[in-house]
Every structure is written in C-alpha cells, then in structure tokens.
Amino acid sequence: GYAQGALAAGGIVGGIGAGILAKKLQVSKVGNLLLIAALCLFPVGFSLLLTESAMAAYLILAGCCFVIMVVATIFSVQIMAFVQTETPQHLVGKVISVCMMLAMCAQPLGNAMYGFLFELCAGREAVVVLAAGAASLVVAMKARQVFSLVKG
User: Fold this and answer.
1) Using CA atoms, how far apart are residues 71 and 90, in angstroms rounded to an integer?
2) Contact assessment for residue 119 and residue 9, using Cβ atoms and an 8 Å cutoff
3) C-alpha R_g of the chain
C-alpha cells in the first residue's frame, strides 16, 4: 500500500514538476529523464541483493519508485507535448491514440514478463531487477542519443 502511495505521489509531483519546469525542459534533453529512471533500478536490485533488512529494502524500493514515477511523468508530459506540436493538426488525435495504445499494451506485457522472470528466478529476484536496470540503461542511452538530435 505504501509503495502504491509512493508511485501515486511521484505521479503527482512529476505532473506539478512538468508544469513548473515547462519553460526549462527541452525535448533534446528528455533522454536524461530516462537515464535517471534506469539508474533508479540499481539501488533496488542491490538492496535486494545486499540488504538483510526487509524494511530497508522496502524503503529503498519505495523511494526509487517515487523518483522513477516523478521522472516518468515529466517525460510523458514532455513527449506528449512534443508529439502534439510536431504532428499535423488533422492527425493529432490518431497519433496520440496510437502512442497511448502502445504504452498501455506494453505495460501488461512487461508485468507478465516480470512475473514470469521472478517466478523463474525465485530467490534471485535481485538478478531480474539488475538485468532490467542494465537493459533500461542501454535503452536510455540510445534514446538519449536520438533525443539529442531533436531541435528545440
């Protein structure tokens, strides 16, 4: 319950942050947000691997989830605004709906994959989280390169 609350609070703080930072945020730098989110997976994995205290691991997990949600929300707002400004007016609804559909379909697939991997690696959950962190880091670094090419 508290971790869910941390995620919800992160979404709210991210939404507020996106509004406050709107003038300072640039799409060419949005890859940095993905990098921060990817890096937040490593403390979670290491806490599962190295921490004896379940409460300490839980607090690290909740804190990292909060930060991930903050940057994910800012990223989403920034990208949606960019897509809306770059898409021809008569296609905005269609393009936004496709973007949202892809994100909504990817989430349950990712959850299913995590569930399968956690079950497969029972007792070694840290390995799954650290591997996800490594994969996310590769994606974030590549996305950073792509977004750095965007003007604006």
Assistant:
1) 30
2) no
3) 17
Per-residue pLDDT of 89-127, as tens digits, reads 999 999 999 999 998 999 899 899 989 999 999 989 899
Token output for 104: 């909504």
In the predicted model, what is the mean pLDDT of the chain? 91
Beta carbons within 8 Å of 11's beta carbon, 6+ residues apart: 69, 70, 73
Q: What is the 3-state secondary structure (H, E, C) of the chain?
A: CHHHHHHHHHHHHHHHHHHHCCCCCCHHHCHHHHHHHHHCHHHHHHHHHHCCCHHHHHHHHHHHHHHHHHHHHHHHHHHHHHHHHHCCHHHHHHHHHHHHHHHHHHHHHHHHHHHHHHHHCCCCHHHHHHHHHHHHHHHHHHHHHHHHCCCC
Residue linked to tokens 């060419």: 28
Measured distance CA(26)–CA(82) in Å, rounded = 9
